[in-house]
Each structure stands twice: as structure tokens, then as C-alpha cells.
Amino acid sequence: MLIDNATAYRFDDNGYLIEDYQRFTDGSEQSLRIVDEYSAFGSINQQTFSNHYVQQFSRNLAGSPTSICTSSSGGCSTIGVQYLNYDYDGMGNLAFQHNVITQFKESYNYDELMRVDDSTKTYKGITYAAVNYDYDAAGNILVKGDYGSQYLYGSVGKGAGGNAGPNAIRQFIRGGTKTFTYDNNGNRLTGDGVTLTYNDQNKPLTVDRNNVKSTFSYDANGNRYKQVKQQNGSVVSTTYYVGSFEREVTLSSTVDKTYIGDHTIKMKAHVGSLGNQSPFQHVLRDHLGSVDTLMDARTGAVLQHRGYDVFGRPRDIASGNALLSSWQGVTKGFTDHEHLNEQELIHMNGRIYDFNIGRFLSVDPFLQFPENSQSANPYSYILNNPMSGVDPTGYRSEELDEVISGKAFEKLEKDESGNLYVTADGETYKLTSVSNGEKNFSISFDGNGGGTAQVGKVSGAVNLHKGDSGTNVNQNQDNSGFGADDAASIGVGFTPVGIAADVYTAVTGEDFFTGEDVSGLWRWAGLIPFASEARKLGNVAEAVGDAATQTIRQSNHVSNVIRAPKEIPGISGLNRVKSKTPIQGGGGLRERWKDKKGKIYEWDSRHGELEMYNKSGKHLGSFDPQTGKQLGDAIKSRNIKKFL
Questions:
Q1: Measured distance CA(92)–CA(403) in Å, rounded
Q2: Do 332 and 339 touch, CB atoms closer than 8 A?
Q3: Residues in domain Colicin E3-like ribonuclease (predicted)?
């Protein structure tokens, strides 16, 4: 049991969270949320809130939600408070969503690079004209039909009149020509009615629009801890941020907000009153983790429904059009980030995102997917496929689900080397061959009964041989990460062999020659000219040292290996201890910390996250080192027992 600001948590014997509750000074308790059931993916299937409303998730065989429903009786009901349906295309892209409660539907199409191509909304039975999106080869938006057209970008040379390079928007048409300027670091300074300044870490200091100016303060680690909001030159509010706690001070009130997990908000007025805000609110989320519905934690009454367009712009649920007024009380919205309502922006902590234009205001310092040509664009959001994932920090996107599930096996997951598949019972298999299929992507296993897992992603059948979970399958790679197989694969991209290899990569998710992981949506980029060659050349760059990685940078991008920080501000009481767990594929040992209760935290240099384990080495989830917020669920098959 853990106590934190009167919020306590209960876990089962395997370290899985089963209840969050309030603990009061008189010894009494109030349950906030009980987790009734987990899926084989480690995701929540059902949970019950303090007002006895039950939220249920249905998922397809790939683990993606097909429905999210919340009602007093459980199940999906038109008289419930939440009823969302989802459908996906053969590539795993969101093809359709339907909010049954608000009577809003929307369908989506994608281009060959899996960038959203158009969206069509139907509201209360009326279908509206499709909104079209268009891009250049580098992923720069050319047309965003719901906001602007004729997007023009800068030139290679920087500095001339605020030019920041070929991926920085310089102008577009919306009721006239809108122009943009930048500093020498690629940070947007002016444009579309917004004026900004930045600190020496390229984080926004001031954001000014519509006569509302927000000034932000950051600590030595770059964490935002204060926002001062002025209107027409006068201070109207000051907000302080400390982890999951916020204090908002206005001219008439002082209100504390405590975010408990991703499901409850506790509010308390020290000065003034809460007005029409409930002191306890439950947050019901959509498939991206965005705030969908706010519900009174005592009565179950709906306080507010929310909605978002493709690129995250808030929608008015009473009309289905863009939201013109501001949300009150809870400022978090799209993918659980804070909306700067008056400025029509989203502060994602690392960077600020402009949902109107569909781009970040500053460059991404990390080249996350060097194998994908679209990832080289430092301003784009989720590779222009915003419905496929989230950006927890403003620096790196994250897929909704990278786990494969099957019928014959409870769970099948790629390990970090990208070549092994591990089932829930610890059996390990290696991919050996692929053949064409007709409908769903099916994985066949030998060595354990020949089971088949229907995944529902793409066509194909993959054969796996049972392997040794303690052996790195990439035998031909040395510690530099580049071996003979890599050399064999370079230069064949436009030959029949290269084309076949890229098709293999697209279907299986691994490189035909090296067996390296080319995961998720981005493995399809290998079918694009030059993209697969860029990924292979990235391995060459890693082999010859940090200087060579400059050849695959663009703008201020750096290597996609994220170094461990010296301090972990988001989780207090950690002590660095001797590392024992090897980094998959070579490269030394993982950085490790322990807390006072013996839990182990290890650094994930690929994602820039902390992986937490219990004393027995069982995985408990992934966490943001800056905020301490849980980013990923526990993976039951993952453990570090032999490295304790």
C-alpha cells in the first residue's frame, strides 16, 4: 500500500494495480476506481468507478479498442454516459469512429505512406463534405482542408528573413496570406496571429494571441512549474505545476487540482468556490487517451462531453464544428495534454503543438525513426497520422499497441532485439519464413503445438522456430550494431532482391537480411524509394561512431539513442545501483535505480522511459522520468529475474 497526498493504491500479488482510493485522517476510505479485469495485453478490460459506473473495453485481436462504454449497469447503452465504437483498416489505421451518445461519426482514408488523406463526418444523420489533406514527399502539409491551403515552406539556407529551412512553414492562405518567421534554432516566432519567445533550451517562454499572453517558467531540468496568464496586460491567473498537482490562483479564488491516475480529478477551493465544478470528477477517455467525458464522481452525472478533429482541434459536441468557446475547469484534452484555450495551442511539455496548422512550433531534437523518410521532418505530428498514436512528451511518438496477441497463446510480444517473440508462459520463438495469405496476418508456430494467432493487420503467414530466450538471435551483429548481414542488405533497394526484401519487411516487421526490428506503422516505409536504404545506412553510421550519425540528421535532429539522465525528477527517493541487465543487441548494461521499497527502475534508451520491476523482477510498467506518470502498462511476460 502506498500513500501519496491521501491517495492510496492496492496491488495484487503480481504487482498489478487493483484499486485507487482516498484515505482520510479519521481512518475512513473512499474507493475511486477498482480494476476488475486485465486483458492478456496487460490493458484494462473493465473498471468500476466510485459511483458504481462500469467502464468496459472491447478489443480486436491486435489489441486495439473496438468499443469503450461506460454506464451504471455495465455494457454499451445509449442511455449510458460513454459509448464509442472504432474500426480499423487492414494496416491498423483508424478507419471509422462513432460516438453513439453525441451522434457523431467520422471515417478516414490514408495515402500510400499512411498519412491521413481525408476525413468525412456525419453528425445527427447529416453527412458533410470530406475534408482533404495533402503533403509533399517530406511530410510537409500542403493543404489542410479544414483550415488553410497553399502551404509554402522555407529554403535550405537559414536566417534570411526568418527562414528556418525546407520544413518550416513560411506562409499559407486562410482569408488572405498568413506569414511566419523563425529564430536560428527553428523555433517559430510569429505567424497566424501568435507571437512567441523561447529560453536557451528552446522551450516556449511566452505565447501571445487574442490579447492573452501566457508566460511559462521551467526548473533546471526543463520541467514546467508555472504559467502566468495576462489579458490585455493584466494578470488574470497563475497556475503552479508539481507532478500531478496543480494550483490555480485567480483574482477571486485559489483552487487545487490533483490528478489521480488517468481517471479521477480531485478539486478543492482554498479561496472562493469551485463554482459549477464538481470536487470529484471521473475522466472517461477515448482510444488515444484524450478526455472524452467528464463525470461527477458521486452522482454519475455528465459534466461535459468533448471531441476533437483529426489533428486534435477541439470540437463543439453540440454542432460537430470547431469549438469557439473555452473549456472551463479541466484544461487537459487531446491525448491528455494541456490546452492553451485562448491561444488555440496545446502545450505538450517538450514542445507546443498547433492543431490548426497540424504541426509543432519548434523542431524535434530526436530523429526517432531513421528508417522512415517521414520521420526526418522535425515539425510533423505523428508522421501525419494523428489517430494512430500519441506524443507523451512532445518529443517522441508512441504507437497505441506494439504487442501481438493470438488464440493459441495468451500473448506474443517482440523482445527488444526485435527478432524474438515471447509468449505469456515464457516460451520463445524466432521468425524464420513468410508466405502470402488471403485476409488477416497470421503467425504460425512450430515447437509448441503449431498454434496460429490471427492478428488482423495485413496479409501473410509467418513461421517461427522455438529459440532460447537467453540468446541474442542477431548472431552476425557485433557490439557496434552493424554486421555482415547489414552490409549484404545495402545497395539492393531497387533490385528484384531488394524489392522482395522490403515486401518481407513490410509483412513481418523485421529486416530480411539482418532480422532487426522495423516495427509498427513505420515498417511500411521500406516500400518507399530510399527509405529502406536510409535505415540501413543508419546502421553504418552507428558502427563508425557518433560523428557519422550527423549524415542522417536533418535540422537539429540527433541520434535516436536517448541517454539516461543524471537525475530522475519525476520519481523521488531513487538511488543509482550497479547495472546487471544487458542492452539487447550489445552496447553495455542498462542504467538502474532502486527505491526504498526495493522496486527496480531501468532506463529504456530507445524510448527515453523508465521500466519498473518489482523485487522479483516482474515488469510493472513504463514511466515518464520527468513527471513520474505511467506511460505503458505492465507486460506480464517481461521479467529481469536472472539479472537481479
A1: 13
A2: yes
A3: 564-641
As a 3-state breakdown, the chain gives helix, strand, coil percent values, each rounded to 5, of 10, 40, 50
What are the CB-based long-range contacts (under 8 Å, 24+) for 192-198?
192/354, 192/356, 192/357, 194/343, 194/345, 194/354, 196/352, 196/361, 198/362
pLDDT tens by residue, 305-335: 999 999 999 998 877 777 766 677 789 999 9
Distances in Å between the alpha carbon of 160 and those of 8, 165, 184, 622?
A: 56, 10, 10, 43
- pTM for the full model? 0.63
Q: Which residues pair with 240 in a beta bridge?
A: 226, 247
Instruction: Report d(CA 410, CA 390) in Å as an integer.
Output: 26
Q: What is the pLDDT of residues 503-538, one digit of tens each?
A: 445 545 555 444 455 544 434 444 443 344 444 333
Q: How many helices (H) and strands (E) does the chain have?
A: 3, 50
260: nearest Cα among 35, 45, 7: 7
Residue found by looking up cell 490585455 in the block: 232
CA distances to 400, 602, 613, 615, 639 from 620, rounded to whole Å, are 18, 12, 5, 11, 9
Is there a contact between 37 and 45 (Cβ–Cβ < 8 Å)?
yes
Q: Which of 418, 421, 439, 438 is nearest to 430 (CA)?
A: 421
Q: Could you give the angle at the alpha carbon of 361 between the alpha carbons of 358 and 366, nearest 5°?
A: 95
DSSP class per residue in 230-246 = EETTEEEEEEEEETTEE
CA distance 114 to 438: 21
Backbone CA torsion sign across 253, 254, 259, 265: negative
Query: In the numeric block, which cell numbers belong to residue 369?
Result: 525513426
Q: Each residue of 53-70: pLDDT tens digit?
A: 999 999 988 888 999 999
DSSP class per residue in 530-570? THHHHHHHHHHHHHH-GGGGGGG--TT-B-SPPPPPS--TT
CA–CA gap between residue 554 and residue 366 (Å, rounded): 10
Contact between residue 42 and residue 63 where contact means Cβ atoms under 8 Å apart: no
Determine contact, residues 557/406, Cβ cutoff 8 Å: no
Rg (CA), the chain: 24
